[in-house]
Design goal:
The chain has nine helices and 14 strands. It is α+β, with helices and mostly antiparallel strands and 229 residues long. The protein has a domain of 58 residues: 2-Layer Sandwich (Double Stranded RNA Binding Domain), CATH 3.30.160.60. A hairpin with a 4-residue loop joins strand 13 and strand 14.
Length: 229
């Protein structure tokens, strides 16, 4: 199947209404917070720094949104009277205070779980259904319960030019720093798991056990037993 280079087919009207668009996958979001969560989940680097407070953001849109809020006088900002944290909106401050109170008024009717906010309950309810409304936008056929799970999956379809984390030991590159670190561990492992029958060794127990199940190993093992008789 041919895929466009990290480009997802979207409704142009939807994109035009969305101010917060990911630089990496062109996905649009309703809020700066949603776009930030998306970028954090995919482990994208924050490279755009605010000149006033030195905080860094994932793209120019998020930086400009922050700078507008950063210019506001402190009395115009939403500050938690308990911990002093500054929130961007009155709604966010309200949800923040609910967590301080420790109450969980939003209860699930299908299990004993309860949550601080309605949004958390709404996300939880999806675990009680088999519905998978989020289909991979590269048309590979996979579907997901959560939008975040779909975004994680779609990384595998990204073009190499979007895989900004380069392995230090080989030409491979990855979308997230964690994936790159996991890969690089294999370069640093010694081959301590050896098969005496086949006279080959492996870096991990997983690969060694997989080898023991292979037809090639079983054939040599059978020959070795026959020779000893």
């Amino acid at each position: 199947m041919d895929f466009c280079i990290h480009q997802i087919t979207r409704n142009p009207q939807t994109l035009s209404k969305s101010q917060f668009v990911c630089d990496h996958c062109s996905e649009g979001f309703r809020s700066a917070a949603a776009l930030t969560r998306h970028c954090n989940m995919l482990d994208f680097p924050a490279t755009h720094a605010c000149t006033k407070c030195s905080l860094k953001f994932h793209n120019q849109i998020l930086l400009e949104t922050h700078e507008e809020r950063c210019k506001r006088p402190s009395e115009a900002q939403h500050v938690c009277h308990i911990c002093g944290k500054r929130l961007t909106t009155a709604f966010n401050l309200k949800n923040h205070l609910v967590r301080h109170a420790g109450t969980r008024p939003h209860k699930c009717h299908q299990c004993d779980a309860s949550f601080s906010t309605a949004a958390e309950l709404s996300s939880h309810r999806k675990t009680h259904t088999s519905e998978r409304p989020y289909a991979c936008r590269y048309d590979c056929g996979k579907t997901f319960r959560f939008c975040s799970a779909r975004s994680m999956h779609e990384r595998i379809h990204m073009d190499a030019s979007k895989r900004i984390y380069q392995c230090e030991y080989c030409p491979k590159s990855y979308v997230t720093a964690s994936d790159c670190r996991t890969h690089q561990k294999y370069h640093n492992l010694t081959r301590d798991h050896g098969c005496d029958t086949c006279r080959i060794s492996f870096k991990t127990v997983k690969h060694y056990k997989s080898h023991l199940k292979s037809n090639a190993h079983k054939t040599l093992e059978a020959r070795a037993r026959a020779t000893k008789r």
